[in-house]
Structures are given as structure tokens and as C-alpha cells.
Automatic annotation (TrEMBL):
UniProt entry keywords in alphabetical sequence: Disulfide bond, EGF-like domain, Repeat, Signal
GO-annotated molecular function: calcium ion binding
Record-linked SUPFAM superfamilies: C-type lectin-like, EGF/Laminin
PROSITE patterns: C_TYPE_LECTIN_2, EGF_1, EGF_2, EGF_3
Disulfide bonds: 50-59
Domain C-type lectin: 122-233
The organism of origin for this protein: Mytilus coruscus (Sea mussel)
Record protein name field: C-type lectin domain-containing protein
Amino acid sequence: MNCTTVTVVIAMLVMVMFVHSIENEDPCFENPCNNGGTCTVIESGFSCMCSSGFTGTLCDVEQCPKPRTMKCDDGVLTTGDNLSCMEGYTRIVYATSMCLNQPIEDTMCIPGDINVATLRFYGSSKYLFVRTFTNVHDAKNSCSRVCGSLVEINNEEENTFLATTAEELQISSLTIGLEHNGEEFVWSSGNTTDAYSNWDSAENFESTCVYLVSGNTKWNTLDCIGLSQSVCEISSNGFNMMRRSPRIIKLSRKARESQNDKEKPKRLQNGTEENSKPLQNDKENPKRLQNDKES
């Protein structure tokens, strides 16, 4: 055995002894913490910081999450563990999970005068389908009390989601947040229907409020004091009052101007178009209602 070989053997022995020493002195060397837990050396040995959903000395015991409650308080939407509902509110279950063979129910506080409601999620918003029949004024009030507003529909996908869900819940029609302001139909946020609309081809625009028919996904007008079921949209930040940017609105108008006359929104004045030709209601995007019929 030459000197080089002896040197190599000695170095290997030293390394083995060093590793063995570390294993004996560092209780976290092989991380005794389970399920992604982090080991920390302490004076008495080690401590495990467990990842979410686990507990125990070695993070080997499954920990069930606490039930979550969503509530609207002074216009602020809050979600926390076991929050209490304010007086006059009741709870609905919007999500259920199982943990250790036990159901974990997440709930939402809703006004007590809403007898039946279902919360669904789509995109970045939450939608509360209210199956209590109310007029439009009361529907708006109910939505504001859950930090929302009557839904604003911005595209075909959202419209289809609402219609499909309503049909699943056996709701024939839903009041939405579109209303005629004397000049044109606008959403609660102030947005127009330039970007998207889905009017029924047979609609005559004799009323000022609007509902969505679940069966055919089309929009029709209704008397604002009539009773209907409704859907509230609750954005991630509470009240759903976000406006589209002016640039987006401008582009949508420019796109419409490139379409043929039948697809352009028409202004309705005294039963005739602005060019004095006989009235032809625009079924895609009406901008004005007819004036009250002359007595």
C-alpha cells in the first residue's frame, strides 16, 4: 500500500466519523417531521413546525380546518373562522368538505327575509341566487345587504352560467341589474350594454327592468314592481361596482359601428327613428324606450 492509498483511506474514515458525529448531534439531520413539516433544533432536542392540515409532535396527526363564515358588515365582505351573523341574518351552507369522516360546513350570513338562497362561484365573483320572489327594489336591497348588487352580465359565458345554474335550481327567470334610465339601458354600475347583450328577438321594450330567462338564456323586460327571483353578484372586494375602463367601452362602440345597420343600437324617439322612418325596434341592443302611449 503506497502513501497515496493510505491518505485516501484516512480521509474516508475521517469523513465517515464526521457524518456520524453530525447525525448524533443534529436531531434534524434526517428530518423527523412528517407531511412536509419543518424541523428546528432546540435546546431539548427538536421541534416540528407542521404544514397546514397537520398537527402533533411529528406532524403525523391530520388537523381538520375550522368552518368558515362569510358575512357583510357595513359594506365590507369578511370571511373568517366561525364568525357570528348579525341580528336579522341567518346562515346558508355554501360548501361542505369531509375531514376525519366529519363534515366541515362553510356558511354565509344572508338577510332573514331571504327564505331560500344558493351561493355559486364563477370567475372572480360569487353569485347568490335568491329564490324568494320580490320586486326589483327589494331585490336590490337584499343584494346590498350581502355586499353585492344585482348581477351585471358582461359576456356570453357568464350569461350561460347564470341561465344554466338557474335552470338547475328550478328558477324560470332571474331579475338582473339592467334598467332603463330614460335614455338607454344601463347596469347598476353605470355601464351600458355596448359590450354584450342578449335580448329576446320578440322583446317589445315596454317595461324598464330586465330579467334573464333560464330556458333560452334571453333577456326580457318586466314591470319593476312585478315579483321575480333574482341573482346578486358579489365581487372579491365586496360591492360589485367596478366599471369597465373607458378604452374598453370605446373599442366596443367602434366594433359595433363596423357592423351593419341591423346590429347597431337604435335610438327610439316618440315611436319613430331619428331619421323619421317607421320604428324598427333593435332587438340586439335597444338604447331608448318608446314614450308612454298617448292617451
